[in-house]
Specification:
alpha/beta, six-stranded mixed β-sheet, 2 domains, 14 helices, Rossmann fold
Length: 407
Amino acid sequence: MADVRILTGNEAAAMGVKLCRPGVVAAYPITPQSQLAEILSRYVEGGEMRAEYVRVEGEHSALTVCISASTVGARTFTATSSNGLLYMHEQLHWAAGSRLPVVMCVVNRGVGAPWSIFNDQQDSLAQRDTGWIQFYCRNNQEIIDTLIQAYRIAESLYIPVMVCYDGFVLSHTMMPVDIPDGDMVRGFLPPYKAHTILSPEAPRTINSVLFPWRRPDPEGVLRDGYMEMRYKLEAAMKKALPAIQEANDDFARIFGRDHGGLIWTYRSEGAELLFSGIGSIANEATVAADLLRDEGIPAGVLGVRVYRPFPRQRVIEATQGARAVMVLQKGTSYGYEGCLTSDFKASLYESTLRVPVVDVVAGLGGRDVKAREIADAGKRAWKELEEGKLKTHSLWLNCYTGEDDAE
């Protein structure tokens, strides 16, 4: 019998963590993630979850606790948002470089200055080059399901994973969530096996300074230098693409819910105008596509579920037949364009497709992104496309830029 409950995104995340049974949870509060840490503390205090709950003095320490615990063989979890994630920046590199399968929820929120407690995705997008796998969830069901998949993926590849979801838009919004059966989760997720064994009988130095070149160890065995270690992480990231798809497919077979793996599509068959995006903004675009279809414009959606590693081949395949793509993102790379747009363009460059890609920045600092606004932007782009003068420069949706005054 299904166990369906009405949960916030944070509650769904906490339930997913409990089902995965981490041994160590590191916690530090920051809006809008605090509720997640509070729920986990109640689970531990009430005996529903057997874990060491470590309260720390800051986000840098929270990830440090996870790094240490993961090194000695514990499954770990932490969560953060916004500037808290930025405080972790050094340790993000350390966790990835140490090949530790830490799982962390990032409840996306705009970064200061100026201060905002509201949602955009600039915090996690800014950490895309730290060596972490990044998932973006579109609803609360996907949050709990992705967390379970994240542990399996992280522990099979020894790469840390961020499970990102939009603050307030999902974290504090209540939706029906089907809770997976605990025994089935344990069958899906094997116990964590540490790659480093610590023992007083065999002392060792962990993460010692490496030279630029390969060199023999005291026993004369040739060991990797710094660059080889970086290459191995990159090679593992490439292996993550099929591993993520396999975990999704197995999850769908066992639990009956398929979130697409690397990407997901909506009304993409015959779509000539594609909206693309990550997280809840891509979900909102499905309503916009419906509105445009009602007006005779063949619109669809290509949602990017996994941003790192970037699923370039799947993006190319899903873009076949499109005449234009509008990439929606709650963040930007200042001085150029949205980073998702850049990755999308780079993927198409490797193919024979020559599809114009429109960069759309939207929803920064929690500004509402309504389906009708996305549809109106799509309608304008379609008109320009039909007239042969489509503008692909950055469009800041629902934002006063002064450009209309200049005209």
